[in-house]
Design a protein that fits this description.
With 738 residues, the chain is of the alpha+beta class. It has 17 helices and 33 strands. The strands form six sheets. Strands 12, 19, 25, 26, 27, 28, 29, 30, 31, 32 and 33 form an eleven-stranded mixed sheet that branches. Strand 20 and strand 21 (614-615) form a beta hairpin. Helix 3 (143-163) packs antiparallel against helix 16, helix 4 (173-182) runs parallel beside helix 6 (219-241) and helix 10 (323-338) packs antiparallel against helix 11 (344-355). The protein is globular, with a radius of gyration of 27 Å. Zinc ion binds next to helix 14 and helix 16.
């Protein structure tokens, strides 16, 4: 009896060892040792796999367990170190798939388990450069209305809430109170939770980004921006008044005199990171001329550098990551402004904060050293922020273990834990991930997790220079994040389930997402473009005019004239300041970027491409179509992108979507709404689906129309426009049996 109980416990602990066995079999298995080779993972070539096998014998006497690691399969050779120990390492001679086997012998019986290891090629020697958000225009029937709603309604609403003393979650007044305390005045009081500065900083950053958007004569946009400038003038001195003389900034800590770095759950890192992000956006907004926020960010980061680090400084890691990314962004800016090497200490601090994560819990990704984490676990926002910060370290230092860990985590997310909308976090653990393939439609998919997913995959794109990461964050942007705010810009949602009747709301008891959504959407130019020594990467297609300061030594304006993704034609006009030779790499979209989902029709690549009016067939390199020439102002590329209605089916292992089908067209995933039809009908695999522009519906959308198998008509709308008319909305619908 005792033995059986122990084995059941092991069965849960050691994946695959005793799963599904009946009591009888368990009793027999009990005679053999229990063994686990650990989770599947990715190793980047040049790095090593850390093999941490787990084995237990059945408790009977008879000597120690003998372990041996061997190559079970794989395309090239594997070199083991300490192959006869549970904790071994392996190196691989070529990229490709490998399976390694751990065999354990207890002197009588043997047992074994395998681990799959995907060896990825080395990333780029010189990663791609991100593009700062500088003055830009947004146009076209898709994005322009979304930006207008953010600028005219959503951000002003957030400002009003944060200035309202009745807002119990806290706002700008906390900074005024902390400033009073610092001046020695009595009676300072803090309002809201310990992380209440976060939404102020994110909103401030959203304001700075919104002010980079050219109003193009729209009076309402210009009026909202004029008000936002007044807000900046009012808020910045208040915020800076709350910064302590040594640079520390955290209003609750200052007001209540709490001991710094004594409780990892107090969001010191998270808030500091958001402050730095806001400061960098403000610095950029002013053409890097007004350095008040920038200098304050340096003082704040400098305070951390002075206190946190190898002995005799303090070892510390936070319960909620964010600053890890922001420190690297600050380092990059400081190096640009002040010279090479000046930002190094911030990168080192970022790595130190990540390296310190151990002996904790999966909830905040401190259960294992970050470079030994291969599975996305815990609170989803913390997780993707952690992984994005780790990718920054991989980018800045080339550390092989960081490279391998971020690719492992990304692989696990992409192949086992990602929703068809690009959202992450099923909510089965606290605001976090569930087991592999467990993706119930009642998804948590916090809006902030969508932001973090974009941050993470954008960094991976820079690390590898590949479009496969863009295919994924494009999905997240359009389908998980964009619909977090309603079409009017008056309500938002914290969670983004795939089947819901939950209406959006103007505010939340934890308003962490309110500014994060806006700052991430308004950073669109950064998601659209990256650069390298040879030229520009065009990652996303959106009506816009964006100027890149440094392309092969010149300034280049890129104008995209398009209604994409309503229509597939994109005209890209290239305006270099002086005629210059460089490459333009254009991303051909791939719609099956996650192996969890399959579309039934070809919707990838380009339909056609023309250069100054003449058809061309660009060379394909690294997944991009490349045009290289000496570009002169007015040069024009016309691209036709496929926008076919596609049926999507999920991997059979996703139980919630079994026997169901979803629809997409281009980057947009669709939803079926109860206001348009009954939602218990089934869709046949061979029924025609038509796309139709409906100017009067939801501000103008392309709907997908057809007939259910029971003969009734259906209309599906883009998922981001869901629940603007009440009722229930679902991405997945029953597939008719063939
Ligand atoms: Zn949030």
């Amino acid at each position: 009896m005792t033995r059986l109980i122990v084995l059941v416990a092991f069965g849960g602990l050691l994946a695959g060892a005793a799963g599904g066995a009946g009591a009888e079999t368990r009793a027999n298995l009990a005679l053999a040792p229990m063994v686990s080779a650990g989770p599947d993972r990715v190793v980047v070539q040049g790095g090593r796999a850390y093999l941490d096998g787990v084995a237990r014998d059945d408790g009977k006497p008879g000597g120690a367990l003998q372990a041996i690691w061997t190559k079970e399969s794989g395309i090239a050779s594997v070199t083991f170190e300490n192959a006869d120990r549970l904790a071994a390492t392996a190196r691989f001679s070529s990229p490709g798939e490998y399976t390694l086997k751990l065999t354990v012998d207890d002197g009588g019986r043997t047992a074994s388990d395998t681990v799959n290891i995907l060896v990825e090629p080395m990333p780029l020697k010189r990663p791609l450069q991100p593009v700062p958000v500088t003055p830009y225009k947004i146009s076209g029937r898709f994005w322009a209305p979304r930006f207008k709603a953010l600028i005219v309604n959503w951000i002003p609403h957030c400002i009003r809430k944060l200035e309202d003393p009745a807002t119990k979650e806290g706002g700008i007044q906390n900074f005024v109170e902390a400033g009073r305390k610092l001046r020695g005045e009595a009676g300072a009081k803090h309002t809201g939770p310990v992380f209440a500065n976060g939404w102020v900083y994110n909103t401030l950053e959203s304001i700075c980004l919104a002010l980079q958007v050219d109003p193009q004569g729209h009076a309402e946009v210009a009026a909202a921006q004029a008000e936002m400038r007044k807000t900046l003038d009012d808020w910045i001195p208040k915020i800076l008044s709350a910064q302590e003389p040594d640079g520390y900034l955290h209003t609750m800590y200052t007001i209540q005199g709490r001991k710094r770095w004594s409780n990892k759950h107090d969001h010191e890192d998270y808030q500091a990171g958001y402050f730095i992000d806001a400061a960098l956006a403000h610095h950029e907004l002013t053409g890097r001329k007004d350095a008040r926020m920038y200098e304050a960010a340096k003082r704040l980061a400098g305070c951390w550098v002075a206190n946190i680090g190898p002995a005799p400084k303090r070892t510390w890691y936070p319960g909620h990551q964010a600053m890890e990314m922001s420190l690297v962004s600050l380092a990059r800016r400081v190096e640009e402004v002040e010279g090479a090497g000046k930002g190094r200490a911030y990168v080192e601090l970022s790595k130190f904060l990540l390296d310190g994560r151990r002996d904790g819990e999966a909830y905040d990704q401190s259960h294992l050293p970050v470079t030994r984490q291969y599975e996305a676990v815990g609170h989803a926002v913390r997780a993707v922020y952690s992984y994005a910060g780790m990718t920054d370290i991989a980018l800045e230092t080339g550390d092989p273990d960081y490279r391998s860990a971020v690719m492992s985590l990304w692989n696990n997310l992409t192949t086992r834990k990602r929703y068809v909308t690009g959202g992450v976090g099923s909510g089965e653990t606290s605001e976090g991930f569930g087991p592999d393939y467990s993706l119930p439609h009642g998804a948590y998919c916090e809006s902030c997790a969508s932001c973090g997913e974009i941050f993470f995959e954008h960094r991976l794109h820079r690390l590898y220079g590949q479009p496969r990461f863009v295919d994924l964050f494009e999905d997240t942007l359009y389908n998980a994040l964009l619909g977090a705010v309603d079409l009017e810009g008056r309500n938002f949602t914290y969670t983004n389930p795939l089947d819901t009747s939950g209406a959006r709301y103007p505010w939340h008891g934890c308003p962490c997402c309110v500014g994060n959504i806006a700052r991430t959407l308004l950073s669109l130019p950064a998601w659209m473009y990256t650069t390298d020594d040879k030229g520009v990467f065009v990652n996303l297609y959106a009506g816009s005019a964006v100027t890149l300061d440094r392309v092969a030594g010149t300034r280049v304006e890129l104008i995209q004239t398009t209604d994409y993704p309503w229509q597939g034609r994109v005209t890209l006009t290239v305006n270099p300041a002086v005629p210059t030779e460089f490459s333009i790499r254009m991303r051909p979209p791939v719609r099956n970027a996650s192996p969890l989902y399959r579309t039934d029709a070809e919707g990838d690549g380009f339909v056609a491409c023309a250069m100054n009016g003449g058809q061309v067939k660009p060379r394909k390199d690294g997944g991009y179509y490349v045009l290289r020439r000496t570009w002169s102002a007015g040069d024009r590329i016309d691209i036709d992108l496929p926008l076919l209605p596609q049926r999507v089916t999920a991997d059979e292992r996703i139980a919630a979507a079994r026997g169901q089908v979803a629809l997409r067209r281009g980057p947009l995933v669709y939803s079926f709404e109860s206001v348009d039809q009954k939602l218990d009908s089934a869709l046949a695999a061979d029924s025609a689906i038509m796309a139709e522009w409906k100017p009067d519906l939801l501000g103008g959308v392309v709907v997908l129309k057809g007939t259910f198998s029971d003969g009734t008509p259906f209309t599906a709308i883009p998922n981001h426009a869901r629940l603007n008319r009440g009722g229930r909305s679902t991405v997945w619908i029953r597939a008719a049996s063939p």
